[in-house]
Amino acid sequence: MRQSKNILVTGANGFVGRLLVPYLADEGFTVSAAMRSLEGYNNDPRTTALKMPDLSESGAAWMPLLTGIDVIIHTAGIAHTEGEFQTYDQINHLATAAMVRAAQQAHVEHFIFISSILAQTGASAYNVLTEQDIPTPKSAYGKSKLAAELAIKKSGIKYTILRPVVIYGDRPKGNLATLIKLASLPIPLPFGSCTQPRSILMIENFNSAVRHVLTSESAINQVFIVADTSPLSLSEMITQIRQARGIRRNLVSIPTMMLNLLLRIIGKSEIYERICQPLVASPERLLNIGWNPLPTNLRKNIRL
Fold it and tell me: Which of 125, 162, 203, 274 gets the most CB atoms within 10 Å of its CB?
């Protein structure tokens, strides 16, 4: 695949997009950064900032953004929200399908879709996840991402689908942001017995995975799990965060059954599955086409 590409990154002011755009510019790509609002955007002079259509509206006008674009990297969507299934479906699935149709009309060469491991599974899994597994998403978010994947595959456009696990880096969102805030408090925490491994993904490794599939013929019309090669348990994550903060470990080991019961009592039973049960996803398929990730380094990437 040729190296010189004009790339459109959607969701360029989101957690993933705002770190991916300057990375790709550093790598020598011509990048257009599309986002919902240009207000407050720290525009990199090496990139072109564009206002993105509202994904919640049907019939979004994508064509004006696609002139001269070779590759679309679609990171835009919703994840950490209380929205109903219809909201997830419209923004993550139907808007993606509409963008793919516009991309075909504009003769875009390659559509890279940032999906999620939750398109494949629920919040935990007792087997090591691979791309060969039959997808069984449990959440509205995961189901909407899988629906978008299927729409892309049926479209006929050349695609690559990435299913990242939880991404950590500068100013994360969602559950990881909550964990970092909690672990940074100098108080005992009752998670010493949460030793089941869970896959995570350093933002530098996510960026390099995108860079790799951009220029690899082996990535065309493929789905890849993206994860660091070394999973960590919740207790290990908290320990590393506290070490970086200069806080002593101070983890209390209570039986996991008791922890589960306590979370149920306070109406947070779903948290137990996300923090104390395993979820290991194998990036072997991506490694086999030459991706070379950095070692897991949670201590380096815990800024809020």
Answer: 162
| SS3 state at 221 | coil
Q: What is the DSSP string of 48-103?
A: EEEEPP-TTSTT---GGG-TT--EEEE-----SS---HHHHIIIIIIHHHHHHHHH
Could you tell me if residue 61 is left (phi over 0), alpha (psi between -120 and 50 degrees) or otherwise beta?
beta
The predicted model gives 121-139 an average pLDDT of: 96
How far is Cα 176 from Cα 154, in angstroms, rounded to an integer? 34
Listed in sequence order, the residues at least 6 apart from 157 whose beta carbon sits closer than 8 Å to its beta carbon are 100, 103, 104, 108, 111
Q: In sequence order, what DSSP letters do the residues of 129-192 get, joined into one string?
A: B-TTSPP---SHHHHHHHHHHHHHHHH---EEEEEE-EEESSS--HHHHHHHHHHTSSS-BS-T
> CA separation (Å) from 180 to 101, 144, 171, 185, 249?
40, 28, 10, 9, 14
Q: How confident is the model at residue 304 (pLDDT cuts 50, 70, 90)?
A: very low
